[in-house]
Specification:
Elements: E1 15-18, E2 22-29, E3 34-42, E4 47-53, E5 60-64, E6 68-71, E7 75-82, E8 88-98, E9 103-112, E10 119-122, E11 126-133, E12 138-146, E13 151-157, E14 163-166, E15 170-174, E16 178-185, E17 191-201, E18 206-215, E19 222-224, E20 227-233, E21 239-247, E22 254-260, E23 265-268, E24 271-274, E25 279-285, E26 293-303, E27 309-318, H1 328-333, H2 339-350, H3 356-377, H4 380-401, H5 420-423, H6 432-442
Parallel strand pairs: 2-9, 11-18, 20-27
Antiparallel strand pairs: 1-3, 3-7, 4-6, 4-8, 5-7, 8-9, 10-12, 12-16, 13-15, 13-17, 14-16, 17-18, 19-21, 21-25, 22-24, 22-26, 23-25, 26-27
Helix pairs in contact: 2-4
């Protein structure tokens, strides 16, 4: 066996300078000046220290940023000024020396006499269009200015798609005037693009860079409905309570997934892929282990590059209706098939069971009505009294639920549907005991 050991050390500083290879100041009027910047970056570790220098007597000078001390991964700006004292073209070399290496960058410019046009284009050195979806476009502007005298005339050109000049590309500017040249980026494919815009004029020529990235079309997540409400009796096993439709009204491919936050709630399937088609997600619930009352849950849909969306689920758990004889209304009308019973049953299902207060009333009714219903079913007089009492309620309920069928008001006791032996001969047994037996048999169907 042999032991090994070592010591990790931080990488040394490393010098980087942009733009590379040079800065072009263009035309500058004699006795005036123009400033441009180099960016100095420490692409290594530690601290980069150094300076930038130009030869003495040059029309170029360092005005700020030297010497420099730059931590790892950071950058600093070194500003160079061009101040021509005479007409003519000038160039020089800027020397960057540091503990992370040495580099040189060129600077150039032209001194022009007062009264002649001078071309200036901003921003300098480039326009960045950022990320643009394939098939879409974005416009950005260069500002062209005559910083000299006379009249500046010229034009702007870009050689190739996906960049183009939109609007006027020619310009004619008096001293101090400006105009805009609009460049459009219209990517037809995904990827990074770069091109050079050339500005030619009687006041000098300049180039500027345009860059942009085409990105694939983005999918869009759309789900309906945004809420699901259901009612189940306690002790109910897994039951379908709704369907969610997942669509992609955007472009590209949508990869989605769905999760729920309750043990009594589940969705199937839990993920999918869609372009233009609709995916259907089944929502199921169980009330096993849940108490009577209202329970809520949330279904969340997520996907790469899309904002999460949620659907609220509200589940009303009602008491399991016991198997007993007739309810009060059924006992009064003598049959669970009576039209009035249908109206009351519809009101119960569509209105009472959809809210907590109504659910409590139904539960109370189910617990306390059997004994009273048995008493009414065995006494004809009690039936008539209850029918008279229920008739206004039935009419009100019928109006609420929007029923179109008519329930006529009785003119005398024999007109009541409860007198089925008189009105419908042979429809029901004549005796109260026999009617009660039939009622008990039919009453096992839940109202």
């Amino acid at each position: 066996n042999r032991s090994v050991s070592g010591t990790g050390t931080e990488p040394p500083p490393l010098l980087s300078v942009t733009p590379d290879p040079s800065l072009d100041f263009g035309s500058v009027i004699v006795t005036q000046s123009h400033d441009l910047d180099f960016t100095v970056t420490n692409t290594g570790g530690g601290t980069l220290t150094g300076e930038a220098a130009l030869p003495a007597g040059s029309p170029f000078s360092i005005v700020s940023g030297s010497p420099f001390s730059i931590p790892a991964g950071q950058d600093a700006t070194v500003t160079v000024r061009f101040s021509p004292a005479a007409v003519g073209s000038f160039s020089e070399t800027v020397s960057f020396t540091s503990n992370g290496g040495d580099l040189t960058r060129g600077v150039s410019g032209t001194g022009v006499p007062p009264g002649v046009p001078v071309l200036s284009v901003t921003p300098d050195p480039s326009l960045d269009f950022g990320n643009i979806i394939v098939g879409e476009s974005r416009d950005l502007d260069f500002t062209v200015t005559n910083t000299g005298g006379g009249t500046l005339t010229g034009s702007a050109t870009v050689p190739a798609v996906p960049f183009s000049i939109v609007g006027a590309s020619d310009f004619s500017l008096v001293a101090g005037a400006s105009t805009t040249v609009t460049v459009r980026f219209s990517p037809t494919a995904a990827g990074s693009f770069s091109e050079t815009v050339s500005f030619t004029s009687n006041g000098g020529d300049l180039t500027r860079t345009v860059i942009g990235t085409g990105v694939p079309p983005a999918p869009v997540l759309s789900i309906t409905p945004i809420a699901i409400t259901a009612s189940l009796e306690e002790g109910t096993g897994w039951t379908d309570i709704g369907t969610i439709n997942v669509t992609n009204p955007g472009e590209g491919t949508l990869n989605w997934s769905a999760t729920d936050d309750r043990v009594w709630l589940e969705v199937t399937p839990t993920s999918g892929t869609t372009t233009a088609e609709t995916d259907s997600v089944t929502v199921r619930a169980t009330t096993v282990g849940l108490t009577v009352g209202t329970h809520t849950g949330t279904i969340t849909f997520t996907g790469a590059g899309i904002d999460p969306q949620t659907i609220s689920v509200t589940l009303a758990v009602t008491e399991d209706e016991p198997q007993f004889g007739c309810f009060i209304a059924t006992a009064a009308f003598g049959t669970p098939l009576a039209e009035e019973i249908d109206i009351l049953r519809e009101f119960r299902d569509e209105y009472l069971l959809t809210n907590e207060l109504g659910q409590r009333f139904v539960a109370f009714y189910n617990r306390h009505s059997p004994a009273l219903a048995e008493f009414i079913a065995e006494r004809e007089a009690a039936k008539k009294v209850v029918r008279v009492a229920l008739w206004p309620l039935v009419k009100i309920v019928e109006f609420i639920v929007g029923e179109e069928r008519e329930v006529g008001a009785p003119k005398k006791s024999s007109d009541f549907l409860g007198d089925v032996v008189t009105e419908w001969p042979g429809a029901l047994p004549a005796s109260a005991e026999a009617q009660m037996g039939l009622c008990q048999s039919m009453g096992r169907m839940k109202e």
